[in-house]
């Protein structure tokens, strides 16, 4: 038994597993596990036929990213010192996991760390999901070194360093197992999207740090489970972002942020209707409705520990749209 488990959460990912799991097995110095979220395709048959040495945890229904990992990792509780949570559509390179684990071992206060995440389709470019490490602006909008909104940078080695960040990408993140369980894992209300950012915010409020290392690299296919630009993803991102802020901030700070986000995002919703993209506009309005209906059920985890962002105060929307700062180095 090794001290780290690479854990892949799968849902109807037969094609992704067939393409990418061989690289994970070949290049990992850790145990490799698959959690299956009640797939309806041939994933189970593929795993049992082609990868019989990979342990499989079968869940009885699709609990989403958050619930799937929570239930699956409960089965591994106490067996490993570290988890590496890895999407099924990620190609890994030699020593990728060793570098991540070494980073965690080198700092007692480091809760999680991500690698450099590049595009599988074009490895010269950073990937949308995490890129060179994630940050949050004053209104909890995420952005990355290497990716701001939809502008993707080329990789010229500019982020080959180690850096402390606000959040690590759920596409590939190494995490200390005891801290994951101590924090009660992901918020299962989220189902999918923003859950890794929410967890990192809670880690930061617990007094721990989040890291990025450019010495570990992976290639992410992206959009294998849910298209990058879809009404469903927009709905989940906005609803879950509101829930994260509601839990993380005091009442006064939350309402200030809420009003700014409401004005900005409802204007965006109207813009979608004007452009004939009503499904996206409806997704925004529905996200606010669902948040409002469920916020009292989710509780508030804020216990007086302020979330301190890495870097200066900013509103990334203003930087990007008004000041036209489209890359991280220009911020």
UniProtKB/TrEMBL annotation:
It comes from Algoriphagus zhangzhouensis. Keywords: Glycosyltransferase, Membrane, Transferase, Transmembrane, Transmembrane helix. Residues 6-123 form the Glycosyltransferase 2-like domain. InterPro entries: Glyco_trans_2-like (IPR001173), Nucleotide-diphossugar_trans (IPR029044). It comes from the Bacteria. Pfam families: Glycos_transf_2 (PF00535). The keyword rRNA-binding does not apply. This is Glycosyltransferase 2-like domain-containing protein. The chain crosses the membrane at residues 254-274.
């Amino acid at each position: 038994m090794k001290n780290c488990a690479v854990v892949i959460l799968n849902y109807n990912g037969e094609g992704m597993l067939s393409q990418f799991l061989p690289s994970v097995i070949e290049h990992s110095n850790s145990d490799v596990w698959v959690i299956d979220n009640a797939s309806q395709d041939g994933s189970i048959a593929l795993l049992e036929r082609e990868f019989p040495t990979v342990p499989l945890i079968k869940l009885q229904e699709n609990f989403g990213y958050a619930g799937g990992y929570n239930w699956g990792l409960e089965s591994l509780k106490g067996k490993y010192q570290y988890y590496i949570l890895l999407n099924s559509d990620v190609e890994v390179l030699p020593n990728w996991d060793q570098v991540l684990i070494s980073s965690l071992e080198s700092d007692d206060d480091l809760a999680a760390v991500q690698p450099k995440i590049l595009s599988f389709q074009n490895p010269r470019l950073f990937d949308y999901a995490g890129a060179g490490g994630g940050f949050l602006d004053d209104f909890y909008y995420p952005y990355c070194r290497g990716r701001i909104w939809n502008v993707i940078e080329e990789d010229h080695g500019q982020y080959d360093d180690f850096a402390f960040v606000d959040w690590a990408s759920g596409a590939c993140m190494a995490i200390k197992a005891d801290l994951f369980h101590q924090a009660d894992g992901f918020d299962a209300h989220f189902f999918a999207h923003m859950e890794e950012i929410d967890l990192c915010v809670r880690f930061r409020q617990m007094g721990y740090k989040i890291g990025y290392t450019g010495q570990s690299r992976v290639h992410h296919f992206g959009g294998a489970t849910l298209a990058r630009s879809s009404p469903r993803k927009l709905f989940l991102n906005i609803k879950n972002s509101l829930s994260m802020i509601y839990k993380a901030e005091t009442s006064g700070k939350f309402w200030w942020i809420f009003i700014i986000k409401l004005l900005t995002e409802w204007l965006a919703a109207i813009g979608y209707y004007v452009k004939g993209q009503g499904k996206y506009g409806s997704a925004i309005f529905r996200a606010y409705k669902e948040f409002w209906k469920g916020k009292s059920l989710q509780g508030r985890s804020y216990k007086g520990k302020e979330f301190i962002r890495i870097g200066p105060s900013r509103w990334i929307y203003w930087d990007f749209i008004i000041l036209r700062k489209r890359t991280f180095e220009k911020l």
